[in-house]
Amino acid sequence: MTSRPELEIRRGDNLEVLRGLRSGSFDLIYVDPPFNTGRRQSRTRIRAVRDANGDRKGFHGARYRTVEIARGSFEDSFDDYLAFLEPRLAEARRVLAPSGSFFFHVDFREVHYCKVLLDRFFGRASFLNEIIWAYDYGARTTKRWAPKHDNILWYAKDPKRYIYRASEIDRIPYMAPRLVGAEKAARGKTPTDTWWHTIVPTSGRERTGYPTQKPLGILERIVRVHSKPGDRLLDFFAGSGSFGEAAIRNGRSCLLVDRSAAAVAVMRKRLAFAAPKLASRKSVSARSRGSRSGRG
Ligand SMILES: C[S@@+](CC[C@H](N)C(=O)[O-])C[C@H]1O[C@@H](n2cnc3c(N)ncnc32)[C@H](O)[C@@H]1O
């Protein structure tokens, strides 16, 4: 018998929360970390040059002034980002079940660096797909091809033993239905590793107002294909709780972690349908009434 799915929302730094979780206890983890860690530093390299009017006194009374020879704020911030991710990725692998999968959502600016980092923790053989989420919304630059996609890297803890439920994949229309015949055209085809999906509509029920909210359609596909009803799921950069909603609507349990009070408030309100007490309680753990909703 499958037990009822549970939903838990925790506020706090995810590294601390992760360190307190049992090894091997999650079947599927999805994260969508921010680029900016909030620790942007601007490191400046300086050199002292001799100058009779300089403000610093040196050896034998000679005077010096300080000149800036380099400033590296972008690189420093980026180095910080990878250093910030490292211990969290190590913990993510530890808490994954033996047949578990890890989905890492990022964009074209960081994906190459993150892939190299993830290979170190999971092993290259565990890398199974780079999913391109392509959308077509917003302004276009006239200086280069307008970037309109995100990258989602899929790693299995064990590349010989992972969950991929092909029968759960939704079907999409053929681009040229007349080339495949009526029956096939009516059935549609399965998507490849390039997923065309609109961003969260600017007006509409799904929108929470939380910046960087990801669409349910993308996350429900991941949940259905890479986990089973009753499984335990985790998002430790949860934001508005999109992954949690996808999990609960499909009968999976989910732990959501975010350090921001605003994110936790949005999640409590958004997921109150699953556990009404969440909307008002301080401690945010509750049994949910989540079930398959037929959405998607
Ligand atoms: C890009 S947003 C996630 C958006 C989410 N996928 C959604 O659909 O709403 C990243 C989230 O990570 C959270 N965050 C950043 N650093 C964190 C940390 N060290 N611990 C916990 N949460 C963190 C931020 O507060 C932010 O809500």
Task: Explain what this protein looks like in three dimensions.
This protein is α/β, with parallel strands linked by helices. It has a single domain, classed as Rossmann fold (3-Layer(aba) Sandwich), CATH 3.40.50.150. Helices cover 26% and strands 25% of the residues. The chain contains 7 helices and 12 strands. It has helices at 14-19, 73-95, 111-122, 182-187, 216-226, 242-249, 261-270, and strands at residues 6-11, 26-31, 44-50, 56-57, 63-71, 96-107, 127-134, 149-156, 194-196, 232-235, 253-258, 285-287. The strands form 2 sheets. It has a 9-stranded mixed beta sheet with strand order 9-7-8-6-2-10-11-1-12, with helices on both faces. A 3-stranded antiparallel beta sheet has the order 3-5-4, with no helix packed on it. Helix 6 links the parallel strand 10 and strand 11. Helix 5 (216-226) crosses helix 6 (242-249). The protein starts with 5 loop residues before the first strand and ends in a 9-residue tail after the last strand. It binds S-adenosylmethionine. S-adenosylmethionine binds at residues 13-14, 32-34, 210, 212-214, 237, 239-240, 242, 257-260, 263.
